[in-house]
Structure formats: structure tokens, C-alpha cells
Amino acid sequence: MTSAYLPSHRAVPVVPTPDPAEQAATSARPLQATARTAKSTPEEETSTLPQKTQQVPMSIRVLIVDDHEIVRKGLYTVLSEQEDFEVVGQAATGNVAVTLAMQLQPDIVLLDIFLGASNGLDIAQQLQRGCPKTRIVILTGYADEGHLFRAMRIGVHGYLQKSLPIIELLSALRAVYQGERVIGEPRAITQVLGEFERLTKEQERIRSGLTDLEIELVRLAAEGCSNKEIAARQFWSEVTVKRKMQDVYRKLQVTDRAQAVAEAMRMGLI
């Protein structure tokens, strides 16, 4: 599986293995039913609440949110075939998704980004506030860097592609339920790591106090350019280059060009 699991700060209770005797006493799990009123439209949502007449093993309760009925039904079928999953509701719009999530408090909301007039990432932010114990997993058919980074900033627990094989989707959802954070595509993992590197360098730059121009001067010095060559490239005088390099030394707390280059490389600035 290509998924990456990132640690979470949230603790997940361990589900005990049912006692064989107790299982034998339980003749059957309650049947799930999806009710739709006579006046319902294709965009109206359904929810399934488990009966509590018998003791059953704990399952992962999932709310499916997607504006395509065929996708919702497909996910419902796949999840319902698993012993450890229970689809407690379905939603085609953002507003209904929030309402159902508040009522049902599912373990996981499986959420598309494009929901007609709604943006799934906006819905994710609302769910983070209204259902803090619910884990949000984005399931999208689009590979968009902007959406990925925003989802990570929001703090979703999973970002998966709809092209993911079923067995990997199920494994990812189980990992999320256990408290992991999951990214399901190698390209997305590379993008996240690249953004992390960029942010790390930016933090180091801010901490050093160097400007972009001063970092460029250090980079030229690392390439072996003399003050005269740097002056020619920047259309400055050598005196100006020397003065600016002195500012670099002061900010990096070094005394010469070689130390400045070494410190900038250590900090990942060049």
C-alpha cells in the first residue's frame, strides 16, 4: 500500500475481542435500513441508526458525503460488506452533511471536496468545530496541490484519491479510526514533504533575519564568486558588496565568507 501514516495527537480506544460465548449468544446483527419519505428527492439524504436490542461488536461508524448518488451507493455497498464498518448516514449536500454529523456523531466522515454549490473543505472546517471527536477523511477524484495543502492546514485525518483500490481504502479508514493520519497517493506525499521543506527553510530565513537578496549573495559566494563578480552581476560597486556581506556576517554571527556559507547551508537556506 502506498499510503503514508502520520502520527495523531488523538488517542483511540482499543476495541476488545468479543468473547466466543458472547458471540454464540448473539444470533444476528440488527439489520440496517435506509428510510426515504415519499416526498424525498435524489438530493435528500438518508441515515441509518443501529437497533440496540442485541449486544453487537463495536463497528466503525461512517457518514458518506458525496453529491454523486452512484458514488454514495458504491461506498455504502463496499463498507456494508465489512464486519467492522457501519454506514450510519449519507449526504449529497454540505448543509445536510453538517446536520447529520451533528446528530449522528460518526467516527469518520468520508467527504468529497466538490459538493455542488458547497466546498467540502469548508464543510470540513465546520465539522472540526461541531464534531471534534469525528475524524474527517477527504475522498476526491482530483489531484490539486492547493486543496491538499488546505486540507492539511485544516487538520483532516485523511486525504485519499477515489482511484485508490478498495482494499487500500478500507485499510486507510481503519488506520484513521485508530488515530493515524493518512495520505493515500505517493505524489501527494511528495507534495506535502516538499511544502514542509519550504516552510522549514522559510522559518530558518526568518529566524536568521536575512533578506532574500542577502541569501542570494551567500549563494553566489558559495559558488565561488568574488566580490568583484558579485558586484558585476548585481550592478553594484565592490564597496556595496563588502558592506552587504558584513551585514550577512553580523546576522549569521560569523566572521568571514566561508563561515557564512557553512552556516547558511546548515540552516538549509542555500
Account of the 3D structure:
The chain has 270 residues and is an alpha/beta fold. It folds into two domains: 4-194, Response regulator (Rossmann fold); 209-266, Winged helix-like DNA-binding domain superfamily/Winged helix DNA-binding domain (Arc Repressor Mutant, subunit A). It is 48% helix and 14% strand. Helix 3 (94-104) runs parallel beside helix 4 (120-130). The longest helix is centred in the last third of the chain and has 23 residues, at 186-208. The protein is elongated and about 75 Å long.
Features of the shown structure:
single chain; 270 residues; alpha/beta; Arc Repressor Mutant, subunit A; two-stranded antiparallel sheet
Query: What percentage of residues falls in helices of 4 or more residues?
Result: 40-55%
**Beta-strand residue fraction:** 5-15%
Q: In the residues, how many domains can be counted?
A: 2
CATH-assigned fold name of the largest domain: Rossmann fold
State the strand order across the main sheet: 1-10-9-8-5-3-4-2
Give me the Rg, rounded.
27 Å
What's the total helix number?
A: 11
How confident overall, as mean pLDDT? 79
| Derived structural class | alpha/beta
Name of the CATH homologous superfamily of the largest domain:
Response regulator
| Largest beta-sheet characterization | 8 strands, mixed
Oligomerization = single chain
Shape: elongated
Low-confidence stretches: 5-49, 52-56
Spatial separation of the terminal alpha carbons:
35 Å
CATH architecture of the largest domain: 3-Layer(aba) Sandwich
DSSP E strands, number? 10
CATH class of the largest domain: Alpha Beta
